[in-house]
Amino acid sequence: MNSITAILATTSLILSPVAFVQAQGSPESTASEKAAVAGADKRTDVYHVHFTKAALGKAAQLGDWLKTPDPNAPMPGHFLVLRHQDGDAWDYVVIEHLGTKATVEAAGTAVPPDKRDLSEWHNDTFVNGPSWEEFTRAMGIDGDSGAKTSGSAYVVSVYRPAPGHRGDLEKMLSEPPSRPADASSGNVLMQHLEGGPWTFLTIARYNSWEDFATNEKNNVAQTGKKAGGWLRLRDHTAFHNDTLTDRIAP
Fold it and tell me: Which residue intervals of 69-177 are DSSP H helices?
């Protein structure tokens, strides 16, 4: 992915840990299920989250550029690119791993002239999250897994807690998946450090679109019983949205 931190305001960030993840679960979840939630007890690394909307007629070209590895990136090859299918107004989200700290310099990284008009708009946020090892395992891109998980579906969600409910919302988003109703195969929770107007970002991965459909069917059934995460979420959030995506890189 071509580095996009050049577009950011001049600032320096030396950033620290905290805890993480998604899925509205039950206290009866097993230890192995808790272990499957990447970084459930800590957030040690910094990531750059870049949401972008393609300029008219430029969606394919923008996608091709975003998934091109940047050899000058802080952590070359450490990125994930997801493409909008249903939900918010953006077309792509790039999540780039920066290590345990990030520094943005005034010089930035120049955007090639032929790439400057590919995006209509974008926004950028620094977040903390789990280690790259945990992140890639949850997202199904660790080792040789990428080819086997190419059919995965991903739901990207952002949340802003209601005043006084930040702790409650974080606790809820950190709960392990409630099996068997929750059909996700990996979950990540990240927390805003600098940037966008949201506090938490979650990514839920499903092994297949069929698993995603099963998960949604189960959620609707739970909500119909006046139970489950749909109602709990509305006790703690001032704003949230969800976007269904597929993966284009790696």
Answer: 132-139, 145-148, 166-174
Count the domains in the chain: 1
Q: Domain residues for 65?
A: 5-249
Global pTM?
Answer: 0.86
Tell me the pLDDT tens digit for each residue of 85-123: 999 999 999 999 999 999 988 988 778 999 999 999 999
Give the CATH number of the domain where residue 156 resides.
Answer: 3.30.70.100
* Distance from C-alpha of 13 to C-alpha of 103, rounded to nearest angstrom: 5
Alpha carbon distance 72, 160 (integer Å):
33
Tokens for 64, please give them.
Answer: 């091709």
In contact, 221 and 180? CB cutoff 8 Å: no
Tokens in use for 184?
Answer: 């996700």
User: Do 197 and 160 contact (CB within 8 A), yes or no?
Assistant: yes
